[in-house]
Amino acid sequence: MTKKITEIFLALCMAIFVLPMTIQAASKPDIKVGDYVKMGAYNNASILWRCVSIDNNGPLMLADKIVDTLAYDAKTNDNSNSKSHSRSYKRDDYGSNYWKDSNMRSWLNSTAAEGKVDWLCGNPPKDGYVSGVGAYNEKAGFLNAFSKSEIAAMKTVTQRSLVSHPEYNKGIVDGDANSDLLYYTDISEAVANYDSSYFETTTEKVFLLDVKQANAVWKNLKGYYVAYNNDGMAWPYWLRTPVTDCNHDMRYISSSGQVGRYAPWYSDLGVRPAFYLDSEYFVTTSGNGSQSSPYIGSAPNKQEDDYTISEPAEDANPDWNVSTEQSIQLTLGPWYSNDGKYSNPTIPVYTIQKTRSDTENMVVVVCGEGYTKSQQGKFINDVKRLWQDAMKYEPYRSYADRFNVYALCTASESTFDNGGSTFFDVIVDKYNSPVISNNLHGSQWKNHIFERCIGPEFIEKIHDAHIKKKCDPNTIPSGSEYEPYYYVHDYIAQFAMVVNTKSDFGGAYNNREYGFHYFISPSDSYRASKTFAHEFGHGLLGLGDEYSNGYLLDDKELKSLNLSSVEEPEKIKWRQLLGFRNTYTCRNAYGSKMLVSSYECIMRDTNYQFCEVCRLQGFKRMSQLVKDVDLYVATPEVKEYTGAYSKPSDFTDLETSSYYNYTYNRNDRLLSGNSKSRFNTNMNGKKIELRTVIQNISDKNARQLKFKMWIKHSDGSVATDSSGNPLQTVQTFDIPVWNDKANFWPLGALDHIKSDFNSGLKSCSLIYQIPSDAQLKSGDTVAFQVLDENGNVLADDNTETQRYTTVSIQYKFEDGSEIPNTAGGTFTVPYGTKLDLTPAKTLYDYEFIKVDGLNKPIVSDGTVVTYYYKNKNEEHTHNLTLVAAKAATCTTAGNSAYYTCDGCDKWFADATGSVEITDKTSVKIPAPGHTAGTEWKSDDTNHWHECSRCHDKKDEAAHDYGSDNVCDTCGYYKTVPHTHNLTLVAAKAATCTEGGKEAYYKCEGCGKFYEDVLGTKEITDLASWGNIAKIAHTTKQTVTKATPTANGKIVNYCSVCKKTLSTTVIPKASSIKLKATSLTYNGKVRTPKVIVKDRTGKTLVKNTDYTVSYAKGRKYVGKYAVKITFKGKYSGTKTLYFTIKPKATSISSLKAGSKKFTVKWKKQATQTTGYQVQYSASSKFSKAKTVTVGKNTTVSKKISKLSGKKKYYVRVRTYKTVKINGKSIRIYSGWSKAKTVTTKK
């Protein structure tokens, strides 16, 4: 907010309380949605406005027509070094979609005359930088033709304006803005997630509608949100809402009412201004608010300064809000401060964290950018916060107490976001990278200010080394511009800059050979702490960005710590880590030749921690900068071992999907850390693997580490198999020497040139197969330890989930007051750590006295360690404590009485502290030694001489017995006790036929029994001790299936002892019949039912005990098979047959003749071949004769050569000739009913 806007508000407040009201109420209209107001002019024409909405700011007025067609923002390089321009890396191609400093906002809010508009971004919309002939840099401001009272009627409002996510990552205003505005083209949906979209607040009078305000127009006035020009044509117009997932497109309302997107530099879209009417002061002179008679008015009684929009004024309070007692003073010539604003800066220095001398720790110097003098308290707190958060990341956390951190209060005239003058002239380039500009004020060496100016001055005045400056930074020698400052890097491990902004960016510059070693990080972006840790990874650890494309040539391959272009898994530098945690080999982008070891790394995505490769390399880097570190053990993990991802060929597919397939597989097998509880009672017979990687930091001594792994019950005991053997395994691993250590960026080297990634590195894998008879219980977990040669635990199954706590270091005087220019920092340590720190002897000009809070476990959050100092020339008041006299013993020295000072640690002979004991050995009383007698003393084990003064033993030794059990030295006689000769009687497992027995020990000498190998727990009743009950039979079953001719059986037996437990007979299927075997043709398919019974008469069940299949064609005359196939408890097959015979016929007439007769019958031609006529003198048809008629169309037959006057019985049947198995056979119908006839003579 500008100084002038502030004055407007103050004037407004005064007007409210002291100005008399001179306008009558009748002249003040009640503005409603839909009302029209005519106010102001543009291009010599009055402007008609309409109230489209009423909200907390009052009536929202929108121009009835578009007023002009203009570009939203120019594309330009004219002022490419301005901080405003640098906000958008696409600005010189398309213009910017950032409303706050757009050309459109500058123009709409300007009253300036032609060519005088103050373009906030410094980039006018002139020819060549907006499309077509749309330049308006020479136009008067939009408000130029408005009267002062008309401008006063426009309320100055602060409102939400959405911002572009890739460019700013704004939105931490109310804590809930964390997403891009979704791109919907329908006005009804365009505000779907508006309230959670990235935004900032802007203050202005005139503006373009944003998408939410346009949506309100649609809701209130329907189609009025579509704009028209003065010719009555529907015309598209700009909104002030950007397309938030890019930084160069704006939203607009199309002529058809859709929400579209368009590049800002195009000039063919309309401008439809809006403002909020100050209804408290707005009065009318005429009109009723209708379109034909709009209100005409202004705010003549509102007192308001001349209006102009600008950025906020500089710091209203130019005084320091931090102590300047400890400062460094720079003299910066035009190489660094060409405009002279920072030619002689005073830079207060604050100690954030100093655990040891600067010569023992890594020194980090943090400077501020865009913090005014009155904001330095914020800068100090920002540094403390960012540092504390960064120290939660491994590998920093392991070295958290090995940093000394200083904050240098480099004060700026302006805050960074205001675009004014700042100490370092940092700009954000078009690639969204912050950098110290060499050209902003013509200061060509500004980006060398750390190594040349700040670093040398700091090392001379503040650093414990106090190295004098070697040359004048304002004199640039030729030929050796950089080398005189190389020493700075030996004393300062990292320069950092924190920029006072919510904008999201970051950059690191590492080329010590050419004088660059700093990184830049924001203070308050939504991921400020993560960015700081990421950029620190570049600066201190030398890690590369894992999201950059490219290809590493051979020399770069050796130089890069965490990137590769070697695709063969057998050759990739991190091959020993493949399959450990999230280590894989994958392309950092589709089709890229740049390979990374994990997608989940802060060097690729700040939502993650450092990956295993970066942790290892970072640990190695820091181990070169400080002493006393000799081993790196990556946090071990335990997985179920299936053989998956266990060999290099498993890592040949480098695509994204394969990486995630690997991580899913790993997570499914993980049994450690937060996945401990995944171990279960179904793990019998399975393999588990304990895996880690270990880096030897020594280039002289190889190491040997022991790995132990066991299955642990929830009560802490070790699980066993069925024989009582513990489920555990042990293996030793040899860790080779780091032979290549000298090549890995040693202290004093300017950069990492090349080294063997795998030198001194060992991948350790301990695989154990859980026995099939493991006695696992619910709640079991896998426990492990990694031990050094002395048995010290380096890591265990609680390491991954161990609790961390915070420690703060304070710096105080003896009286408890804080030392000026200190702001105790906080870092993180494992819970229970006992800090071993050696405070620096000096802090600024103060001398160390004592420390509180060390050498005891840290078991609570907020633990404070206090370093006490005093002025070097200050008179010290001794706080004396008596050390009482102590007599010497034979072996222990004594002392005479003396006094010690708790503060300065000096010794004195008197209680007043006037007689100092400078020779501390003078109070010591030496031990006189033993006076031993000649008589031997003894016990059952040893003999000795006894000191006559203290009775301590001297010359103690074990008895040396002869064959007579008498000690040859002292004569002691030994009573020989019985020594058990114990033999293990192995455990006997219980079976289903007899019980078992637990293992025990038997003495071969005395015959006694014991539970343990030492013979301490005797078994007095062996018969009742350790018995294991018989186990149940393990039942298995065999089935012999029944057949139609033989019975079957079911036999249940024990698979262990083979005993038959039961036998059940399955009766044979002895009766298999068809319900009908002969059927008469009826033109339908015939399926006679099958009836199957076993020998007991039980009917078997179709489809359970057997299935039936019928021959095809069963509707015609013929013979057909039925196959019965047995199943279930039965086996075998049986085939039965049935016949379909033709339909019968009947005699229709019998006519007698002389010794003959003629018979006629009914025709039956379907499924017949012919007929047979049978006649006999006997009613039983004995000695009958049969005559065949071969055609089925013939229906009569004459029978002659008979006896005269004789009675004959006659019958007829049909037949059908069919082929069965290749043979023709006849199938006959039944005979017709017999009739009689008597022949004539």
Description of the structure:
The protein is mainly beta and 1241 residues long. 10% of the residues lie in helices and 30% in strands. It has 13 helices and 71 strands. The protein has a 7-stranded mixed beta sheet with strand order 7-14-3-2-1-16-15. A 7-stranded mixed beta sheet has the order 17-18-20-19-23-25-24. Strands 37-36-40-39-38 form a 5-stranded mixed beta sheet. Residues 1-26 and 168-176 have low confidence and may be disordered.
Give the integer mean of the pLDDT values.
89
Q: Write out the strand line-up for the largest beta sheet, numbering strands in chain order.
A: 7-14-3-2-1-16-15
Structural class computed from helices and strand pairing: mainly beta
Sheet with the most strands, sense and barrel status: 7 strands, mixed
Q: Which spans have pLDDT < 50 for at least 5 consecutive residues?
A: 1-26, 168-176
C-alpha termini separation: 150 Å
Strands, count: 71
Helix count, per DSSP?
13
**Approximate helicity band:** under 10%
Q: Which range does the strand content fall in?
A: 25-35%
Radius of gyration: 52 Å
Approximate shape: flat
Short description:
This protein has 13 helices and 71 strands. The longest helix is centred in the first third of the chain and has 16 residues, at about 5-20.
